[in-house]
Amino acid sequence: MRKAFTPLTILAAAMFAYAPIMIARAPYESTMGLVQKIFYFHVPSWFAMFTAVFVCGIQSAIFLFKRRPSADRLAFAAGEIAVLFGFMGLVTGPLWGRKSWGVWWQWDARLTMALLVQLTFIGYLLVRKYGGPGSDKLAAAMAIFGMFNVPFVYMSVNIWRTIHPPTTVIPKLPAAMGVPFWFCVAAFMLLCLLLLTMRAQLEHRRAALDALYLEQE
Fold it and tell me: CB of 114 within 8 A of CB of 90?
């Protein structure tokens, strides 16, 4: 990954630079018009967030059951990335909703559950930082809880009445919209991978530094 990191960073930068051009060329949605183009950043940010959530949850489970410190460090890194992309989704969503629905926030099932996941991982980070002895295990349990909420966020629009469109919308996108959408998804997923790699390396180096300090004492 070290050798590929620089080329992948350049590729990610190029993809994000070209993404607005693809989005500008994409046709307007028939009912929402220009504001619908927030979709090309809003939805991919949640893709990246949920990916980081699953990494955090799975690595937390490995830490709890197999006591691997490296898994805990990777989970902590993924938790921070999940919160970052979650904020992107929660900012772009109301900007879109205000123009298309007439309100900044609507307490429907998907919005409420997405906020719950975001708050869970903010809590995860706070527990890790301020929880004291044993906080790593408590935070790991919170991460697993947050991970198991993700499928409910995804399926909520199909189960309950909600202002969000159902999950069948994305597979039915016409090519003129689908190509830029999946291009943006790929860009966000690549950015997520790069950020996760950098943050995990920082945690591993911090652990190595702590070990050196303990040896000196």
Answer: yes
In angstroms, the CA 134 to CA 137 distance is 6
Asked if residue 117 lies in contact with residue 44, where contact means CB atoms within 8 angstroms, the answer is no
Question: Which tokens is 125 given?
Answer: 């980070």
CA dihedral 139, 89, 185, 167 (to 10 degrees): 100
pLDDT given for residue 19 in this prediction: 95
For residues 190 and 125, give the distance between their C-alpha atoms in angstroms, rounded to a whole number: 23
Q: Do 190 and 12 meet the contact criterion of CB atoms below 8 Å apart? A: yes
Q: Where are the domains of the chain?
A: 38-209
pLDDT tens digit string along 65-108?
A: 988 889 999 999 999 999 999 999 999 988 888 887 788 888 88
Residue 97 near residue 105, CB atoms below 8 Å: yes
> What are the b/e assignments for 103-136, b being 16+ CB within 10 Å?
eeebebbbbebbbebbebbebbbebbeeeeeeeb
Helix (H) or strand (E) holding 1: none
What token pair was written down for 13?
Answer: 């930068």
User: How far is 10 from 8, CA to CA, in rounded Å?
Assistant: 5
